[in-house]
Amino acid sequence: MPAAPHSRTLPPSWLVRPDDGNGLAPAVWPSGADRDDDGVLRVGGIPATVLRERFGTPLYVVDEEDVRAHARRALDSFRGAAALHGVQARVYYAGKAFLSTEVVRWVTEEGLAVDVCSGGELAVALAAGADPSRIGFHGSNKSTVELERAVEVGVGSIVIDSLIELERLAAIVQRRDAVQNVLLRVNSGVHAETHEFLATAHEDQKFGFTLEDAPAAVARIREIAGLSFVGLHCHIGSQIFGTAGFKESAARLVELHAALLEGGAIPVLNLGGGFGIAYTAADDPTPIEELAAGIADAVGRECAVRGIPMPNLAFEPGRAIVGQAGVTLYEVGTTKSVALGDGASRLYVSVDGGMSDNARPALYGAQYSARIASRVSDAPSVLARVVGKHCESGDIVVDAEYLPADIAPGDLLAVPATGAYCFSLSSNYNYVPRPPVVAVHGGEARVIVRGETIEDLLSRDAGLQLTEIEGIDMPAPSERWSSSEPQARRNAETKGAGPSERRSLSEPQARRNAESK
Questions:
Q1: Which annotated residues bind pyridoxal 5'-phosphate (predicted)?
Q2: Which segments in the chain show pLDDT lower than 70?
Q3: How far is CA 234 from each of CA 4, 138, 195, 483, rounded to the nearest angstrom?
Q4: Residue 240's pLDDT is what?
Q5: 60 assigned binding-site residue
Q6: Catalytic residue among 234, 303, 391, 422
Q7: Is 317 annotated among the ligand-binding residues?
Q8: Which among 386, 432, 378 is positioned nearest to 413, based on CA atoms?
Q9: Residue 493 has what pLDDT?
Q10: How far apart are CA 394 and CA 267, in angstroms?
Q11: pTM, 2 dp
């Protein structure tokens, strides 16, 4: 179901009152989620109440086995679909969905490569031990420092997004006498059926080259010693159901691919990701096996029509790997029934998190589900809206859901399908610390990303004296940069320095801060 604005109808047309207000829709929750004999939600075999006692709330919970299972399923699906056409497929995990060193290890152990979009994401992948040759580097505005680092460590491919970036990279490889594989990002012009902000292949947006401009860019790449053009790349959007958009985009790319073959072999066609998942019981996402077969068949058919060999394929699922594996736990703070006229009402359920840990409803009107996690209830279901603690009327966690009428302060509430783009988009709005991320597996739980504290937030405030926060080691005022000093001067240390003299992008923040202590 495409993202939609927050509902004004009561109830929204897609929302169905559940037969069992305690039930867990299988397509929405991690595959191992269930309720114990006391009715408490379990994820990875661990009761939600135990997780709250150990780690507090809000809390991101990620089922490790669920992530691994989705990674294996995606790899098997795309490899199998490609093999039927006599070619190979590489599957990258799109790190922007959710990245930590543990998640990188899980997906790489299951055979996936890794797709990163910034120097920070590259640093995480490298710190996790990912093979640089199996890393793809995206981004619409990669800095010279980021490109320098990518070439230095030997990333497998860099996706070129603009002519300026192309010339930046050309200067780097020529100076280093290096050879770098590159792909060219192309806008196929296919308008994905998704939220406007999630559609990335229409003409009026920031990513890539038009079909008309791509040949000249490829010609320029082929002129540059040190750059090896290996293929085209296209990503039509995110949270897409069905295969029609992917098939049409593939057809347009194959036409361009065929024309470019006159200048030399092109071994790869990367068709991106964007495969949707279920956030509510009303969602009906296309199985990954069907997507893989449909896209591979479309490419094979278009190549056959043109009498050209089919290239190897590449794909970049992120949400489809990690989204369903995540559950966010909140504690209910207040409830409030609001009369809406004509006898209708909505129960507002306020929790101890909000848009700082899940920005998607505010950004895209994204829809989610919710269930009481600490108990079961026989109370009748009422129309509810789960909201956060932030000073925004748009601070909505779950726009529309049926919840038991007796939901009360202290209840534990679980929101499923939060594994993708929740932690990644989290913030400190209203100075709320970001929650920890806990991985569960086989009845055990461990922190994989430490949660923030108020002390963490205050420690970054350069206006505080060393003695103002007990236990926080901060630089004295004379050692800090002047707030009036131009950014250009603060950046001067790295200008003109060779890569070995610059701070490594993979160097821990604690070490980078040590100079000022």
A1: 274, 316-319, 421
A2: 1-9, 191-205, 465-517
A3: 25, 11, 18, 42
A4: 86
A5: no
A6: 391
A7: yes
A8: 386
A9: 41
A10: 47
A11: 0.87
